[in-house]
Structure formats: C-alpha cells, structure tokens
Design goal:
The chain is mainly beta. Helices cover 4% and strands 62% of the residues. The protein has 1 helix and 19 strands. The strands form 5 sheets. It has an 8-stranded antiparallel barrel with strand order 9-10-11-14-15-17-18-19. A hairpin with a 2-residue loop joins strand 1 and strand 2. The chain is elongated, with a radius of gyration of 29 Å.
Length: 291
C-alpha cells in the first residue's frame, strides 16, 4: 500500500505547465517537493511554481478505518519558502529569517584602575536586537547581522563616587554620614552585530555563535545620589550637556552558547569605555542570558 501511495505522490509533482485536467495536477518548475510517508498517511507538499516562490500545493491521503480520505489544496504562504517536513511531523527550516533577540546580564569591567571598585550586581547590561539570519540550505552554519539598542550601567562601590571636574571624571568619596549612596555611569548604544553560528549536528540542540559587535554610543550620563539626615541629593550629568567623555564608537567581541534556544553569552571590549584623559580607564566585560 505504501508503495502505491508513494507512486501517486511522485506523479503528482511532475514538472510541466501548471494546469488542472481530469484530476491531474501538474506543477512546473517546482522549487521543492516534500513527501511524508507512514503507515496511515501519504502527504505531498510542493513549494514554489515557476517564478512564484510563495505558491504551495498540498495533497494528503489518509487511511481512516480502512477507508481512504483524500484532500488537496493550493495557496500562497509567505512563510512557506525554507520549510521542510520531517517523517514524524512538521519541522521548520528557514534559510532566511528575522529574529528578535533579548539579552540581560551583569557587567564586570576589567583593567579597572587601583582605588576604583565596580560592583557587578550594581552594574548590568540589557540588549534588544533585531537580527537578519541566513542559513544555506540544510547547512550547519548561519550568518547574521542586525540592529538594536544596548544599555550598559557601571555602578561603583557605595563608598566611592565619580565627580565631574571640568572635562574629566575624578574618583572621590561621598560626604561623611551619608547613606543610600549610589554612583554609576550609563552608556546607551545602537549596536550592529556580525555573527557566525555553527550547529553541532543537524539533530543537535547545541550551537555556538561568535563575532564582533559595533556600538555607536549615542547617549550617556553620570549619576550620583545619597541621603543625609537633612535631605536627599540626586545629581545627573547628561552626556549631551557637558559630556562625560565616553567613546563614540566601541567594538565588542561576543560569544553565545545556545542549548534548546537558551543562550549564555560573554562579551568583552578591548577598548576603554571612556576616552583617554577623560576619566578612569576600564574595559567593558559582561555575561548573562541571551534569547
């Protein structure tokens, strides 16, 4: 029975001009022909017809209670190209697609000068990126780029504060007797990643992504806040006003290890966050979750 059903399916996908005559459907220049076969089901799916990439034809014959149930249909599906069916069901395989990626992690800067302490859990990073991904047909490698926004915060130890001193940021201390003390630098960036991803086998759920991220740093600020017995003080120095001296463009090196869609990332910049001569020199290092 399966051989008979398979022969029917292959005949359905013959290549000629697209016509319907006497229950015979002929598809010209099909882009992809997919056949699903098991003990009770024979399904043929054809993607593309000539120059029409989004044409989809489906023909299904199913054995139900010793009777054959047949169904066929054709339609246009903008998501159809790049999909394929497995023997056990429907499994998507995109060659070109967009993805929305989110990242959240903590910052632990390196090369921090003596006397300055940056606290990781006062320092964090958030990313929202839209990515364009290309995977060669049935390939294990994906090439990606995109555009998104990255926010980074660098918080100091509660005993220290950065103070604006002319064009530079100097390290100082909070007033004696103050409490609820916070001092942090914020930098916001438009980020452009260039990634290469390798899947460890067609059936593996593990893959590794590597590549640089170019950051166009468009905003930033220095904020100090503390309380005394008399009042609450909150000072913010905006980048667009007098400037805090962050670099306008920085480059990160990023790696992401994905397993079942959940990613762990690490990102490091060989460039200092602040310009030379504008404040303490330290390099961005962060790690966390990436979806």
């Amino acid at each position: 029975m399966r051989k008979t059903m398979l022969c029917m399916a292959l005949l359905t996908a013959a290549v000629a001009h697209a016509t319907v005559d006497n229950d015979t459907t002929i598809i010209s220049n099909a882009r992809q022909v997919i056949v699903v076969t098991n003990d009770s089901l024979q399904q043929v799916k054809i993607l593309g017809k000539g120059s029409d990439e989004h044409y989809v034809y489906e023909n299904t014959i199913q054995l139900v209670d010793t009777n054959f149930v047949s169904e066929q249909r054709s339609y246009h599906d903008l998501r159809a190209i790049g999909m394929e069916l497995s023997r056990n069901g429907c499994e998507k395989k995109h060659s070109n697609y967009l993805s929305l990626n989110l990242g959240l992690g903590v910052s632990a800067p390196t090369n921090v000068p003596d006397g300055m302490t940056v606290k990781p859990f006062r320092s964090w990073e958030a990313m929202v990126w839209m990515m364009y991904n290309h995977t060669p047909f049935k390939g294990l490698n994906t090439f990606s780029t995109g555009l998104g926004f990255t926010a980074r915060y660098y918080g100091l130890d509660s005993k220290q504060m950065l103070m604006k001193n002319g064009p530079t940021l100097d390290l100082g201390t909070f007033p004696a007797g103050s409490y609820h003390r916070k001092s942090r630098i914020y930098v916001g960036s438009l980020s452009v990643p260039f990634f290469y991803t390798h899947d460890f086998g067609k059936k593996s759920h593990l893959n590794l992504t590597l590549g640089p991220v170019v950051n166009f740093n468009i905003t930033g600020s220095l904020k100090n806040s503390y309380k005394t017995s008399d009042d609450f003080y909150d000072y913010t120095t905006e980048a667009k006003a007098t400037g805090i001296g962050y670099r306008p463009i920085t480059v990160d090196l990023m790696g992401i290890l994905h397993y079942y869609g959940l990613g762990m990332y690490m990102k490091y910049s060989p460039m200092s966050v602040l310009k030379d001569g504008r404040g303490p020199q330290f390099h961005a290092l962060s790690f966390g979750l990436f979806f």
